[in-house]
Amino acid sequence: MSLPTFSFSTTAEEVADTFASKIRGKNVLMTGTSLNGIGYETARVIAKYANLVIITGYNLERLKLSQEALKKDVPGAQIRPLILDLSSLAAVRKAAAEVNAYSEPLHILIHNAAHGGGDFKLTADGLEIQMATAQFGPFLLTKLLAPKLIAVGSTSFTPRVVFVSSEAHLMGPGVDLDNLAHPTPENYTTMGTYCQAKAANILFASELARRSGGKIKAYSLHPGTIYANMMQKEHNRADLVSFGVLNPDGTPNKDSKFPFKTFGEGAATTLVAAFDTRLEDQSGSFLWDCVLANEKIAPHSADPETAKKLWDISEEIVNEKFTF
Predict the structure, then answer these.
(1) Residue 307: other Cβ atoms inside 10 A
(2) Which of 34, 64, 131, 215 is most deeply packed, by most CB within 10 A?
(3) DSSP labels for 76-122?
């Protein structure tokens, strides 16, 4: 069977329908599944075919709202909520232990969650909260779940880990490795740190692909510009207006150089990264508009030495050696 060519306007539904046979029977854990976000749409479409979709969030009330909406949208889907605060290493360990105790195997891990920006804030672990949520929490979670993921590997299936990054990584100088362990307000801006976090996603994916030696396939991606939760937060408006993404009143700028996608279009590239069979020999790659786009990675996020250094620093910060 010839596979369709995907593009900017491809929807998550179209991708899921194309690879329905690959999604069936799979168990998927996905972070960042609040309503009015591409994570919710990704989970909804996967749930049409998957055996189990584990949705996560740090707020039980919001998590239950997502679960109820998913069950309403996809009657019969098996949706399991998991309390997970990625900004807390202790909370990540607790959630990982819960997942490792599940009787079901785990096939796909999708890192979609991001902190919503705002003022400089340290976590209980002394980390800047955006980087904790985007890099250190996901690093620890992946490390702790890696044995469960690897256990499902076979000659016909390799587990995948997907990182939802952003073209925003192009708008900054890359990850400030020197200040990750000891962040200070002097080195912080909301959008600057967001750009760093998205650069870290790409570096982590490429290094995970390299170090796992084929036991795990890892991919990062730019989902597109979507008028979702984070873009609607008041404290992000000034930056987004300055970039030309939003109008001064906070509405989407239809004349922006960043063309907007629907939620369905925004979730599509994540589905491709998680299930497209054409990516089997492309582990570590970056996707954009549902296709490979390694040429669009900023040099600072394509540097293998930077990826190795970020990995080593992450191991020190979470106090765990990540080996395969």
Answers:
(1) 24
(2) 131
(3) T--EEEEE--TT-HHHHHHHHHHHHT-SS---EEEE-------S--B
CB 26 within 8 A of CB 108: yes
SS3 label, residue 54: strand
Residues 190-206 have a mean pLDDT of 95
Residue 59 near residue 141, CB atoms below 8 Å: no
**Residue 276: per-residue pLDDT:** 98
User: How would residue 226 be classed by pLDDT, with cut points 50, 70 and 90?
Assistant: confident
320 vs 127, 146, 181, 313, CA distance in Å?
Answer: 16, 13, 15, 11
Residue 103 neighbours by CB under 8 Å, 6+ apart: none
Q: Are 130 and 82 in contact (CB under 8 A)?
A: no
Confidence label for 191 from pLDDT (cuts 50, 70 and 90): confident
Identify the CATH class of 12-316: alpha beta
What integer pLDDT is reported at residue 256 of this predicted model? 67
CB 222 within 8 A of CB 167: yes
Can you give the pTM of this predicted structure? Answer: 0.94
Average pLDDT for 200-222 = 98
